[in-house]
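Section 3.1: Structural characterization of target chains.
Under the original work plan, the team committed to producing a structural model for every single-chain target entering the pipeline before any wet-lab resources were allocated. The record below documents one such target. The sequence was received from the expression subgroup and is listed exactly as submitted; it comprises 351 residues.
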Amino acid sequence: MIDSENMSSLAIRLRDNLSFPWNFDPKEEHFQDWKDRTRERVRKVLGVERIVSAGGSVIAEWVEDGCIGQELELRFSNGEVTAAYLLRPDTNAPTPAALLLHDHGSFFSIGKEKMIRRPGEAPEIDADMRHWAVRLYGGRHVGNELARRGYSVLCADALGWGSRKGNGYEAQQALAANLMQFGISLASAILLEDLEALAWLRELPGVDPNRVASFGYSMGGSRAWQLAALSDDVKACVAGGWMGTLAGLMQPGNNQLRGQSAFCMLHPPIAGKLDYPHFAGLAAPKPALIFSGAQDRHFPDSAALAAHRQIHSIWNAAGAAEQVETRLWQGAHCFPVEQQDHAINWLDHAI
């Protein structure tokens, strides 16, 4: 049987009988024992056990608003190459840093440009960049604001966006299917590259390696908490617009049932074994800010709140209840200036 969402009765039964054997259970073991074992297991099955730093070279530079910008070429251990923007305050003092993870949005013509504005873009890129900033980010580029506030920020095009875009909406599903022929998920390919970009940023001269954060919204939010969960290089995490329980998200009308964008965020080796809030919980006890909108159709408030409760339980078991903040903002799936200011102020204190 297949319903109107193209969801088979088999998938419904699997959803309704989830047990998540890798989830944390405080009645069964100590938090640190669970974290050490589970993080090692997740790293292994996702193919990110040993992370090397990406290679980087400078393509172009610019100066604007007291910040120094660079267009980079990053080279990854999987043989892939991507374009990236680095924006830094004009100072000789060590700075905190943020790896910015751009969103999905079914908007592929730009990636890094969603987070960092550079002067002199080609007209079509500039138009897309301005349109997307207004649509999702209140007209502001988060990376430029972070740099103005004293952070070094890096954002790279993920596989399928910007300098690596395919030929439209259908391309992402084809990309995911092609990688599956070789036992690789699109989500794990993105994760590997994010981890290597993070290692490159942390090693950058002038960056304080003890003050590096992951920061993203929507798909970028899921990428941010995954990095915080799996890398000790992340000291704090800002993750907006992507959190819920699996059962709560596999409901009629949700993107998780549609294929396409879901392939960018699904990890088959851990699916059904580790629920999303418990994956994020591997980041405990480090500081984390996790939030979404109360009217976000992609992450219904019931699914988000259920996940938030589990997240708080995990941080509490880690002895760091005060280090995690979750909240539902009024509004839909967007990251306006008010929320950005709150997130950056929170990060200033956390890192």
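The CA atoms of residues 130 and 327 lie 28 Å apart.
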